[in-house]
């Protein structure tokens, strides 16, 4: 199998999607920030009364999704029509779970936008809490769902 | 313990570093892209003869580091003086290991720049290989080393 | 009434416009920079012989309109099809009046693009003249007209 | 008096600050968003239980300050060391008052950064509330205080 | 003949393309970096065993094409559907020849995107090799081919 | 001779300038846009009465200089302290001559900023005049002068 981002000589290019149909596209991605239990407690209490870590990370994720084609060299620019993030505490990890949903109607999918939204939100959580816990880990970022376009539906197992 | 990115009322702000000394700062971060063994084989053979996935991801990571303060809402803009990435196959994972080293002389550290470089490189790997393997996972992104500045040296365990 | 940028839980998101029709959209906004009469005289004479404050502000406004979705967190990226600014002296104020007209054919309106064009042009005027007059005021920025889309025509009174 | 952004021929340039000393610089700016009383009530209740308009606008203002030299053609890029915004309801207006404080140690002042922070926050308020009230006005944006540098202290009257 | 980027008063604006049809657009541009023969030898050997100047310049050109409307004040933002660059040694020059092909389906052409891709790639070559040869020249950047849209096909002679 | 942008393995990196002294740096670059004599006449008359091609290109060049480290992958971000462009008709070419001067006090030179300013201004001229003349050529972009830093003064011959 060949990688579509390289031509016959092995040179990277932005894949030609001119002939692809404009269809409704959807992608959902998730990721986690693992942290010490006290750090999670600090964030949770913070959200209640001292500062909204999850709210800021959610906004950063939305803005990050809009920068995807600027960050990822071979990504096509796309007019995103929806971005939403959900950030929820995960006591078992312990840490935060981040889920991003992105939609567009365009000629390519929005997997990279959803993954970039999750990554940017996770980095933002790290930034805001790093004074308390430098050993946090951003982990298990993956695509959960992709729909629309010729290659069809993908669901993570 | 309070989170430094929030003031007494819980409002987020960009922390005042005006009074901090300009010192040499170093940060090293790592992360992984886990994939199917055949995907890793495809990349490795690709690097030899058909297209340089790691080379493009390395470049994306360097450029990503320069966008850190644009991506992370409360990050200070910093004149980075060095960025280097190393991307190596990890047969045991299987997948790729990404390591980023960032330096500056400034008033705040470059942890976020190193973590953003790793994240951007990992997303770029995903983008270039996703036609072959949508189930890849970006994982275990963490700070390995931080040096310089008042809070002193941090080494991951 | 609920604010559309927040979901049921109060979390901010980029509103889903996937199902909205692609229609012709138009917005016109205005704003003012109030200044000392001598400052206005300086600009007006400058335009004639020493430097084109209004011309530079007009260009900054056009470029600012293109950055709207990068500046405003929950704004959708839009392929703008026209931007024009008019900057005229207003002796009564005294100061400059700025008017921006923006068009697109898209799934959401261009009010924010028109308002951002006016704001950026006004800030640019301030920047170029601030050595002479730091007490200038950017004022009365508002939407004059919006047309196209389901919510229909709006005209300021 | 000549405008410093134009040379002898009237051509615009970025003023040479190479010889200026690196000193601590501070600027404070303010601005307002005037709205219908019901709109202000909607935001205030929203902040309490349904969505944080002021929090998002504050963050947009901080990020906007970092984009100043990208937005304003002749502005020098500056390593900002602090940005903070305060957004408070003003029942008399009625509307919101926005105040931004910016610091750096550099060769030019941060007036434009403070004014850009206020403008961006105001535009963000408009964006989030425009579905309820298109007649809002962004008004009275001005510099309150500037300190540091050769031209000395400026205080608005 | 009038220049379309200026209105009747001579003020610059972004031309209104709202009424133009969305059609398939193609542009091809070329340019050269002239250098000392030893510099070309250094690059060519480098590509084989010590570093891939052409590969990095090609990637920079692709990313540069995506920034066109951000760089060129009156350019419309466009959803590019394909970018590819070819960089080949030209022993006769001596130096490198750069060719960029850009496609979109939109309301305006992609000439500027193709020319910006070539320029950015040429600047990147200069940057990577300047320690060895500061006298290099970026030269003969021109449009080779433009197709699609009302003004029809253009081919350089 | 080795290329400094590649490490021992041939991998590209952003060169470490942490140990270099902060000194005053200056660079001057030039370039040309060759066009049909009637095109030059159109621009020249335009400048007098119908629109300021050179003024807009000059501004685009200044803003382009500020984007250098965003465009050129391995360029260090630098706090530019001065940018000026001169654009003059060259009847013999025929066409326009563009000269850019950039200053900073930093740890690396500003050659790339000066060359990027010239390139961006040249592209902007092409954009504004392309409706009249698609056969224009951007040519002979080179470094004229570089001063400051360890590698010393360079003057083009």
Automatic annotation (TrEMBL), chains A, B, C, D, E, F:
**Record-listed substrate binding positions:** 74-76, 112-113
- The domain of life for this entry's organism is Bacteria
Zinc: is it a keyword of this entry?
no
Q: Name one GO molecular function term.
A: cyclic pyranopterin monophosphate synthase activity
Q: Which Pfam families has this protein been placed in?
A: MoaC
Q: Which GO terms describe its biological process?
A: Mo-molybdopterin cofactor biosynthetic process
Q: In which pathway does it act?
A: Cofactor biosynthesis; molybdopterin biosynthesis
Q: Where, by residue number, is the active site? A: 127
Tagged with keyword Lyase: yes
Instruction: Give the EC number(s) under which this enzyme is classified.
Output: 4.6.1.17
InterPro entries, alphabetized? MoaC (IPR023045), MoaC_bact/euk (IPR047594), MoaC_sf (IPR036522), MoCo_biosynth_MoaA/MoaC (IPR050105), Mopterin_CF_biosynth-C_dom (IPR002820)
Q: Which UniProt keywords apply?
A: Lyase, Molybdenum cofactor biosynthesis
CDD domains reported for this sequence: MoaC_PE
Molybdopterin cofactor biosynthesis C (MoaC) domain sequence ranges = 14-149
Q: Give the UniProt family note.
A: Belongs to the MoaC family.
Q: What function does this protein fulfil? A: Catalyzes the conversion of (8S)-3',8-cyclo-7,8-dihydroguanosine 5'-triphosphate to cyclic pyranopterin monophosphate (cPMP).
Protein name (database record): Cyclic pyranopterin monophosphate synthase
Taxonomy of origin reads: Bacteria, Pseudomonadati, Pseudomonadota, Alphaproteobacteria, Rhodobacterales
**Gene name, please?**
moaC
């Amino acid at each position: 199998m060949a990688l579509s981002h390289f031509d016959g000589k092995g040179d990277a290019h932005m894949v030609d999607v001119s002939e692809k149909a404009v269809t409704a596209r959807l992608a959902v991605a998730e990721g986690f920030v693992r942290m010490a239990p006290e750090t999670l407690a600090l964030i949770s209490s913070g959200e209640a009364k001292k500062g909204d870590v999850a709210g800021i990370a959610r906004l950063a994720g939305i803005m990050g999704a809009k920068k995807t084609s600027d960050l990822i060299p071979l990504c096509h620019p796309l007019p995103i029509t929806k971005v939403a993030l959900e950030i929820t505490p995960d006591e078992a990890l312990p840490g935060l779970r981040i889920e991003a949903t992105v939609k567009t109607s365009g000629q390519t999918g929005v997997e990279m936008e959803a993954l970039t939204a999750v990554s940017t939100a996770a980095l933002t959580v790290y930034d805001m809490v790093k004074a308390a816990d430098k050993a946090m880990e951003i982990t298990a970022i993956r695509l959960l769902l992709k729909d629309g376009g010729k290659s069809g539906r993908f669901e993570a197992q």
